Amino acid sequence: MAAPFVPIPPDSEQILNSALAAFTDSIQAYLPLLVTWGERILGAVVFLGFGYALIQAVLNRDWFGILMDFAWAVLRIAIIYLVFANFVAWSGAFPAMGQIIGADVSGVSPSFGPSDVYALGWHIVGMLFTARHFGTWFFHPFDDILFLILIVATQITWFAAGLIYLWVFLEAKWVIAAGCVPVAFSGYEHTFPILENYFVTCLQAGIRLLAAMVVLAIGLLLAHGWIADLDTRGLGVNTDQIGYGAIQLVEAALLFYAMWSLPKKAAQIVTSKGGGGVYTHGSEGAEAMFALSAGAVSRAARAGVSKALKG
């Protein structure tokens, strides 16, 4: 098949897959250090928290109340230390679950990456370009230019779908590393929901990955049907170039929208009552986890200052 003259070349070197592998390797390399810094921050948080509680006990002379607070604080700290002791395994369990279930249900191999998504679209574009009759340029130049525009738009749309699939995998890796520092601040009563929201975020990443693989499986099934149809028609595509080009563009756009929208909607099913922060892109009323962490820490600080002033 002749290579189409289009702005985005075929990903013969698996650039998208290589980018995903490089990002994953970098995350794995930095993750132990991030966990170590999270443990250090947690130690500082514990020291400041117990010190503040002891000062309040002396000022208010409420020793029984402070003992109860200490007991709950020790329980929270123990839970967080247990999480850090198993951080990588527990955090990665939800994304791994989504990938395993998604692969089993959809039949899409875990090794099928974003470069393979783009390669499938490039194959469709190549069939359209190969079937194009060059004589059309002389007899119907406007139709020929429009047909080339449709081909280019179709290829760009498939490339965008591959980028979305790449982002879904990146998100599943990134959310694990991004939670190390925020979770360390969840030792206080007012910030403890950070821990809940973090694991909800990991679960959302897994659900998003699962849904993306199911959508991709449907897209692959349809795409092979489109390829078979184009292969059957061959040069007959020239009888209605604009029509066939428009059909392929619409089909690519539908796959792109499904890859963009449906996994996100599936992830929105999982919510947290801890602070309302749900790590889904573009969802109404959702907060990024770092924003949630900052808000929770800020509320804790305001509560402490208010309590100190009243004391």
Query: How many domains is the backbone divided into?
Result: 1
| SSE order, one letter for each helix or strand | HHHHHHHHHH
End-to-end span in angstroms? 80 Å
Shape: elongated
Assign a percent range to the helix content.
Answer: over 70%
Mean pLDDT figure = 75
Largest sheet: none
The total beta strand count reads 0
Q: Rg, please?
A: 26 Å
What low-confidence regions span 5 or more consecutive residues with pLDDT below 50?
1-8, 275-311
- Derived structural class: mainly alpha
Q: What's the number of helices?
A: 10
Strand content: under 5%
Question: Which descriptors apply to this entry?
Answer:
311 residues, mainly alpha, 10 helices, disordered C terminus
